[in-house]
C-alpha cells in the first residue's frame, strides 16, 4: 500500500523554531526554479484534500500524501519533522535525502522530560541511512552535538556571518550575499538564518548560487510568523517558547528602537509547564506592557496557567490580565499608542481555540483586522 510514497525525495526540516518558515522558503524556491513540490507541516498538506493537526502527520496520512504526490508527478516533498514525529516513528521508511536542523531551545519537555532527551530525538533525523545532505546551523550552541549525529553525511553549515553586510530597516533588512545586494522584506535576524538554510538546500540540487540569490527577495513568510497587519504596527507571531518569545520582542526592539513594545500572550494547557514562568520573565524584562490571556487552555484551569506565568514576573511589574483572548486583543489594538508596537504571540496562523473539551473559532489575524476596520 502507498508504495509510490517511497519514490518521493523528502527534505526533512527539524528544530525547535523556524521549521514552518524554512519549509515554506524551500518550497517557494523550488517552485521558482521549476521543481514541482509538495509541502507538509504545521500549515497542512499541499496539493491534497487531507488535513492533519500535527506538524508531522501520522505515518498513514503521511504515506498517503506522498503517494498522491508521486501519482501527480511530484518528485520532491518538503516535510516539517517534529520531535514527536521522530520519537513515534511517523517517518519510518521514508526516502529522506536532506536533513536540515534549525536550532534547539526548550520545548516539549512535558513529553521528552529533559533537554538532553529532546536533543537526542531531534538528532536522530540526521543519522538516518537515507540522508545524503545534512544542513546545519553552526550559530546554535548545540551545533557540536548535531554534527556528531551527521557523521558520514555531506555536511553544509550556515550562519548569520554568511552575509557580508546587514543593514536593519523598519521593513526588514538590506543585505549583501556573495556580492549580491537585496532587500529582505520581513523582520528578524532569525529569518535571515531561515533564508540561508533554504538557500543552502537549493544549492544541493545543483543550482548555481547566482541563480538562487536573485530569488531570495521574492520569498514570502508563512502566515502567523511575524505577520504584520496591513500598515499598522501590529504583528501576529506563533512564538510559544521562551526563545521564540525573546526573538520576537527583540526583533521589534531592533527594527523600532524608539517605540514601546506591548505584548499579548498566554501559554497552552496540557503542555510543558516549566516554560510558562520563563516566558513571563522574558516578556516582562523586554516588553514595556503586558496583557496575559488564554492561548489554548485545553483541559487546564486558565487562571492556573496565568498564575504559572506570573511566577516569572516581578511583583513590581504591572500586568493586565484578560482571559478572553478576543477581548484582550481588541483592547490592545484600540488602546495602542502612536509610539507603540504590538506583538500578539502564541497562536499565529491558528484559527481555533481549545478549552474545556471544546474547539471554537478564534483567529488572531481576523480579530485585529476587524478592529482596525472599525477604528479607521
**Uncertain segments:** none
Roughly what is the average pLDDT, rounded to an integer? 93
Beta strands, count: 18
Q: Output the number of helix runs.
A: 13
Basic shape: globular
Number of domains: 2
Helix residue percentage: 25-40%
> What is the structural class?
alpha/beta
Give the spatial strand order of the biggest sheet.
3-2-4-1-5-6-7
Give your account of this protein's structure.
This protein is an alpha/beta fold and 376 residues long. It has 13 helices and 18 strands. A 7-stranded mixed beta sheet has the order 3-2-4-1-5-6-7, sandwiched between helices. A 6-stranded mixed beta sheet has the order 11-12-16-13-14-15, sandwiched between helices. A 3-stranded antiparallel beta sheet has the order 8-9-10, with no helix packed on it.
Detail the topology: elements first, then pairings.
Elements: E1 9-14, H1 19-32, E2 37-41, E3 44-45, H2 59-71, E4 76-80, H3 83-87, E5 96-101, H4 109-112, H5 115-123, E6 133-137, H6 143-149, E7 154-158, E8 165-168, E9 173-177, E10 180-184, H7 189-203, H8 209-212, E11 227-228, E12 234-237, H9 242-255, E13 260-265, H10 274-286, E14 289-292, H11 302-310, E15 319-321, H12 325-334, E16 340-345, E17 352-355, E18 358-361, H13 364-375
Helix pairs in contact: 1-7, 9-10, 10-11, 12-13
Amino acid at each position: 500500500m502507498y508504495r509510490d510514497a517511497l519514490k518521493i525525495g523528502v527534505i526533512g526540516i527539524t528544530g525547535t523554531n523556524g521549521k514552518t518558515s524554512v519549509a515554506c522558503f524551500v518550497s517557494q524556491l523550488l517552485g521558482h526554479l521549476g521543481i514541482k513540490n509538495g509541502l507538509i507541516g504545521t500549515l497542512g498538506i499541499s496539493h491534497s484534500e487531507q488535513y492533519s493537526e500535527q506538524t508531522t502527520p501520522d505515518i498513514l496520512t503521511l504515506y498517503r500524501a506522498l503517494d498522491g504526490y508521486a501519482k501527480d508527478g511530484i518528485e520532491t516533498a518538503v516535510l516539517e519533522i517534529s520531535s514527536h514525529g521522530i520519537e513515534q516513528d511517523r517517518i519510518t521508511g521514508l526516502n529522506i535525502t536532506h536533513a536540515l536542523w534549525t536550532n534547539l531551545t526548550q520545548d516539549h519537555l512535558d513529553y521528552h522530560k529533559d533537554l538532553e532527551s529532546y536533543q537526542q530525538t531531534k538528532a536522530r533525523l540526521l543519522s538516518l541511512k537515507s540522508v545524503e545532505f545534512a544542513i546545519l546551523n553552526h550559530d546554535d550552541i548545540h551545533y557540536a552535538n548535531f554534527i556528531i549525529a551527521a557523521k558520514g553525511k555531506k555536511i553544509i553549515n550556515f550562519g548569520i556571518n554568511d552575509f557580508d553586510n546587514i543593514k536593519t530597516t523598519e521593513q526588514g533588512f538590506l543585505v549583501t550575499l556573495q556580492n549580491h545586494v537585496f532587500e529582505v522584506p520581513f523582520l528578524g535576524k532569525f529569518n535571515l538564518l531561515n533564508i540561508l538554510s533554504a538557500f543552502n538546500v537549493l544549492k544541493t540540487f545543483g543550482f548555481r548560487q547566482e541563480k538562487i540569490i536573485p530569488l531570495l527577495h521574492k520569498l514570502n513568510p508563512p502566515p502567523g510568523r511575524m505577520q504584520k497587519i496591513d500598515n499598522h504596527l501590529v504583528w501576529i507571531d506563533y512564538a510559544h517558547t521562551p526563545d521564540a518569545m525573546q526573538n520576537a520582542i527583540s526583533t521589534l526592539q531592533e527594527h523600532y528602537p524608539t517605540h514601546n513594545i506591548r505584548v499579548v500572550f498566554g501559554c497552552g494547557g496540557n503542555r510543558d509547564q516549566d516554560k510558562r514562568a520563563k516566558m513571563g520573565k522574558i516578556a516582562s524584562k523586554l516588553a514595556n506592557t503586558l496583557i496575559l490571556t488564554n492561548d489554548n487552555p485545553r483541559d487546564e484551569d486558565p487562571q492556573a496557567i496565568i498564575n504559572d506565568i506570573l511566577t516569572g514576573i516581578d511583583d513590581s511589574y504591572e500586568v493586565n490580565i484578560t482571559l478572553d483572548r478576543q477581548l484582550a486583543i481588541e483592547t490592545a489594538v484600540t488602546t495602542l499608542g502612536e509610539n507603540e508596537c504590538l506583538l500578539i504571540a502564541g497562536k499565529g496562523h491558528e484559527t481555533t481555540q481549545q478549552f474545556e473539551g471544546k474547539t471554537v473559532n478564534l483567529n488572531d489575524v481576523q480579530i485585529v483586522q476587524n478592529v482596525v476596520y472599525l477604528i479607521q
